[in-house]
Amino acid sequence: MTDRAIRPAAPAATEEDSLLTLIDRMAALVDDTGLSELEIEVGGTLVAVRTASAIAASEIPVSPDGSTTPPQPGAGTAAGGPEAASSVKAPLTGIWYSAPTPGSAPYVSVGAEIGAGQVIGLIEAMKLFNEIKSDLGGRVTRVLAESGQLVKARQPLIEVEPL
User: Fold this and answer.
1) Tens digits of per-residue pLDDT, 18-62?
2) pTM above 0.85?
3) Helices assigned H by DSSP within 7-144
């Protein structure tokens, strides 16, 4: 008998597992090298990993002549409507947990003041728990993600009002 016949076949990785592994490896590469963003396109799928500063820089509008105009205070309001709330978004797809353990108090709740870099929850992806840190500081106005539910990358988790 050959060695191949004796060993059980390794379970085939799902496409989702492969994509999550790729995203994790890209995030580690961005962290280790100091890059602000990294994009990879395979087939028709584009995967981009960006730091918070790269995302903020990409939100500056560019006019047709190529010049940039920084956002003005109060910009983003719709015809006298309230200003759009800032939100902390999920950096990866996985199961959201709002507390460190079942039955314990959540990391954040409505009305709580948080600082940039503060842990706001956990996302379980591929049997690993990833601490999710806020990239905003201020007062939590809404908790959008439900504990124990699937969240997708870039899905808003909480809304924060700057102080």
Assistant:
1) 777 878 888 888 788 877 787 887 777 777 787 766 665 555 454
2) no
3) 15-33, 52-58
CA distance 40 to 24: 13
Asked if residue 30 lies in contact with residue 51, where contact means CB atoms within 8 angstroms, the answer is yes
With beta carbons less than 8 A apart as the criterion, state whether 56 and 74 touch: no
Are the CB atoms for 132 and 124 separated by under 8 Å?
no
CA distance 99 to 150: 15
Q: Output DSSP code: residue 102.
A: T
Q: Count of CB atoms within 10 A of residue 87's CB?
A: 15
Give the β-pairing of 37-42 and 45-50. antiparallel
User: May I ask the CATH architecture of the domain 86-163?
Assistant: Beta Barrel (2.40)
Q: Dihedral of the CA atoms 122, 88, 38, 29 (nearest 10)? A: -30
Give me the chain's average pLDDT, please. 78
- Please report, in angstroms and rounded to a whole number, the separation of the first and last CA atoms in the chain: 70
Q: Rounded to whole angstroms, how far apart are CA atoms 152 and 72?
A: 30
Domain boundaries, the chain: 1-61, 86-163
Q: Which residue type, as a one-letter code, is found at position 120? A: I
Residue 12 has pLDDT above 90, yes or no: no
Retrieve residue 64's tokens.
Answer: 């047709």
